[in-house]
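Give me structure tokens for this 213-residue protein.
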Amino acid sequence: MSKTTTEAKITAPNLVQATFTLRGTAPLMTNRFAAKMELLAKHVEGGKAKKGERKAKDVDDLLEKASYIAPQGWFGFHVSGLRTALIDACRLVNYKMTFAKLSIFVDPEAYDKEDGMPIIPIHGEREMSVMTVRTANGMPDVRIRPIWHQWEMQPKITWDADQFTASDVANLLLRVGRQVGIGEGRPYSKDSAGMGFGLFELIVARHNKAKPD
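Here you go.
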């Protein structure tokens, strides 16, 4: 009895890249080290610790600790936040999110100087946001976070052209910019309905050279 063999036909990844310009239509807020920031914010006004008096923290220091900063000194946004938003937008068009995770990527331009988070530049003037919030136990607290009221980003996005067309990626970005949002206070937040932050419009796309196999 002869045995038959099946030859696998697996093609190389068909990766392409384009640069997109995103312009904010709502404020953009970031929060590096969210869990750590919650602890630090409690010290803004000082208070009692188990062993003596807590020293009040500098709000400027809190602002720096909540910001993504490249070694070159510019402020950035973590690429995983934008990539996750693109994957989340696939829910709206019934595209398998598991496929999207394998097929679309946001390429970093640097890595945060403190924790190595991959980031891209935020173009605009950073300001300080001071908000009074309530913690999980209902106690009032203070949050110091960076905010950009006018901003732009130019992410380089790589995708598998066997899964998405350039038009598909542009339309996903449009949905993220209007329906999902990015950063703190975005509409599609796991913890709340957000504050309408992190929305944007798509200005232009520029195709780059094809990514090597």
